[in-house]
Amino acid sequence: MSLNSEEKQQRKLIIGEWVMISGHIEKMLRMDFGAKGKGLRQLTLQANLSPELSGMINSLAGYRNKLVHNVDWKLKPIRRARFQMLSDNIFAELSRLLSEKEQQQLWDREDTQRHDDRVLRWKRDAETRLLLKQKIDTSLATISLKANEHAHSRSSEISSTIDKTARLSKYVAIAAAAGAGILTVVSVFAMQKRK
């Protein structure tokens, strides 16, 4: 599959977004759930998450891997929406699980500071994801607008070429008719001269 320049730009932007979101989930699993390992799938196993949450994380990792490693994988808007929905649900569920875990423990000053640091980190990560999503949405809209303008100008050029060709054909027809008329007159005149 050959991608045009707009599709390449779109793909590059969304790869950046998906890799960053996956990285934030990995960071939460390592820092907040004590998981050690490589990649989302290993981290998910070590974090002892529910099968449903593990399934969501594995689906998200699958989407990311297909986009990053398979050039022929079509990036449809519904897939981006599905990835976004999965990531939102994963962040919400991981946050809920950690809050429950912390409520079960007695907090001392150190736990409170760790919690405050974690909440601040999550907030910064969420803001970063939101800013990147807004930037990517704006870039995608710009790319789409430029593609539409290019297609419209191309369509106008074709329409203009068709108009010019039609006018030229009309002139050629007139000239041909005039030429035929002149030829007829010349032929008649030549025949009269021979007589």
Unreliable stretches: 175-195
Q: Helix- and strand-based class? A: mainly alpha
What overall form do the CA principal axes indicate?
elongated
| Beta-strand segment tally | 0
Distance between the termini: 74 Å
Overview in brief:
It is built from five helices and no strands.
Explain what you see.
The protein has 195 residues and is an all-alpha fold. Helices cover 87% and strands 0% of the residues. The chain contains 5 helices and no strands. The protein has helices spanning 5-33, 39-46, 51-69, 77-104, 109-194. Helix 1 runs parallel beside helix 4 (77-104). The longest helix has 86 residues, at 109-194.
Quickly list its features.
disordered C terminus, 5 helices, 87% helix, elongated, 195 residues, mainly alpha
Layout: helices, strands, pairs:
Elements: H1 5-33, H2 39-46, H3 51-69, H4 77-104, H5 109-194
Helix pairs in contact: 1-2, 1-3, 1-4, 1-5, 2-3, 3-4
